[in-house]
Protein: START domain-containing protein 10
Amino acid sequence: MDKDGERYVECKGTRYALMTLPHFRKFRDLALSSDSAWKTHYSDTVLKVESKPPGDGSTNLNIIRATRIMKNVPPGVLYNQLHDAQYRATWDTNMLEGYNIVQLDKHNDIGYYAVKFPWPLSNRDFCNMRSWMEFTNGEYIIFNHSEPHPDCPVKKGFVRARSILTGFYIRPISGERGTQLVYVSHSDPCGSIPHSVINFAMTKGARMILDNCEKYSERYPAYVAKMYPADHVYPWRTPKMNWDSPYLYPEDVPPNTEPATEHQQPEAGGSGGEKGEGNERSGEEKAVPFLSSNAGLLGTSLPLAPVAPYRITDLLSVQQYRSIMQDAMNTVDRSFLREGRVPTTKEYIVRLKYMVEGIRRTTVDV
Structure:
């Protein structure tokens, strides 16, 4: 971390600035801003589409914002659906190809996405850094921006497009089961398309994007129940962050200082809904040692391993080592949770040893 609070990681000779809590606050502020520059293009009881020029005058492409009320979609279901590339491939007819290139940390990755454009336009593709975080008040954010990567070269037959800032701000509707989704898009398809045409098309296209988002979120629980086992672990789920935290990530929070809670995986049916809907395991617990003094046998709630605190003086290699060990410990914890028993110290250490050895044999430097 440098003096201004940024955090960086190196990948194949490129230094990337990771998106941390201050960046998520900035995205939330944009999603909720009410300045007079916003122009309304469409509004009804469940949808509002707006646009405004960027404040810095860097481009003639407008920022598009669409706000949608989804009464039958819990926030957690929407969040999981937006992350699930396997599910997206079943319904997104415009997606030509999409895959993850590298995981930078628990909240940032770089991926490739190719999209079909209507004739006679060339198809577009993106190389984006995607960032995500979930919060203790039930809110979630996913956003992306374009970044280069050696394993994501420009492909023949595609125009490399650019995401300046595109993402989703998800929050529960007070007293209801549903969700308010704010979709923000500031993208440049590049090529020779006039900016005035892009601005017009994006204000019209935002409605279709959110229609599909709601439609396929409502169908997602049935897909999960059919395709995933009852103990399926969503790889994008992380501890929850307090918006007012002085830390950059929930994993940085020392144990028992603030509620950076470990996400509880859904029961069979896997809708990923919120607490109190009857489709998640009970509650969110603070991270405390797995082998705690009050751990009992079957029926006892067994929390996962604590998150090691982040220190400003740590080298990047130390941060990476801590992250690897945290993942290994949580994997071992979950294995005993699935078995429904408390291990002996020897059993735990032996299983952790095999896990670390497996990581050592398979890890490739990024």
